[in-house]
């Protein structure tokens, strides 16, 4: 019965995470804690949850394929290359992170990701203001920023979308559709290369990942369909509350 209860929890978490990612993001706030709660070691839980959410990122990238445009200072090839390099580095770093260390780091990462999500609009506005006040950053600074965010995404996926949107705004991108398109593309690339490295490193619970992947995909499809019926501020603060509760639980367990 306990195993069935665990399976039901993971399916519900993945379904809801897929719906959240389709609407506003924040799905990682559910998949990682749910996996850890059912007894999966933190590092493996992080990798497995990332695998489960991969189809959603790929679908999002495909949906914005006509709007994609690289940000000023970077070509599309550079964005792709930096995403793959940074994602690989972050994923490799996760492989060498002991479970005990990652367990201590997770609540801080969740808290930081929650803060980024909560203040996402202000963060993007700040980035746009910085861009308006100064010249477009140099290609070197643009590449460095892209690489740093990519490393973060390969290591820990939470809050990645907010960081990417802020980065693209800071680099001078103004079209929201173009920014969202690039955000989805980079997220898909980061997740794909990270999943490949996780698989080689043997830190993915594939049975759980595949079951959760199906639930997350269904959740993403239905979430997109009902998105217009839910007030954006309700979604945002619901996700923030979830992130704070999950971070608190990890702090308590640590």
Automatic annotation (TrEMBL):
Membrane topology: Multi-pass membrane protein
Superkingdom, taxonomy of origin: Bacteria
Descriptive protein name: Probable membrane transporter protein
Species whose genome carries this gene: Comamonas guangdongensis
Family, per entry: Belongs to the 4-toluene sulfonate uptake permease (TSUP) (TC 2.A.102) family.
Keyword DNA-binding included in the entry's annotation: no
InterPro entries attached to this UniProt entry: TM_pro_TauE-like (IPR002781), TSUP (IPR052017)
Pfam family of the protein (one): TauE
Key words, A-Z: Cell membrane, Membrane, Transmembrane, Transmembrane helix, Transport
Chief location: membrane
Keyword check for Cell membrane: yes
TM helices/strands, residue ranges: 78-96, 108-127, 147-172, 184-203, 209-227, 234-252
Location(s), subcellular: Cell membrane
């Amino acid at each position: 019965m306990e195993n069935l209860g665990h399976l039901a929890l993971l399916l519900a978490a993945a379904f809801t995470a897929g719906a959240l990612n389709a609407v506003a993001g924040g799905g990682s706030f559910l998949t990682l804690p749910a996996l850890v709660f059912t007894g999966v070691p933190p590092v493996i839980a992080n990798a497995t949850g990332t695998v489960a959410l991969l189809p959603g990122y790929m679908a999002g990238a495909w949906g914005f394929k006509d709007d994609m445009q690289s940000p000023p200072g970077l070509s599309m090839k550079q964005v792709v290359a930096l995403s793959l390099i940074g994602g690989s580095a972050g994923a490799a770093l996760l492989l060498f992170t002991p479970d005990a260390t990652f367990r201590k780091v997770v609540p801080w990462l969740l808290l930081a990701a929650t803060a980024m999500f909560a203040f996402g609009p202000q963060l993007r506005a700040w980035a746009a203001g910085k861009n308006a006040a100064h010249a477009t950053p140099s290609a070197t600074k643009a590449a460095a920023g892209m690489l740093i965010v990519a490393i973060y995404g390969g290591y820990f996926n939470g809050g990645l979308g907010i960081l990417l949107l802020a980065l693209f705004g800071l680099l001078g991108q103004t079209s929201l559709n173009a920014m969202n398109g690039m955000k989805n593309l980079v997220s898909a690339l980061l997740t794909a290369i990270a999943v490949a490295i996780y698989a080689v490193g043997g830190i993915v619970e594939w049975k759980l990942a595949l079951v959760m992947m199906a639930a997350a995909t269904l959740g993403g499809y239905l979430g997109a369909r009902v998105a217009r019926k839910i007030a954006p501020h309700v979604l945002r603060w619901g996700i923030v509350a979830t992130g704070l509760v999950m971070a608190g639980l990890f702090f308590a367990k640590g």
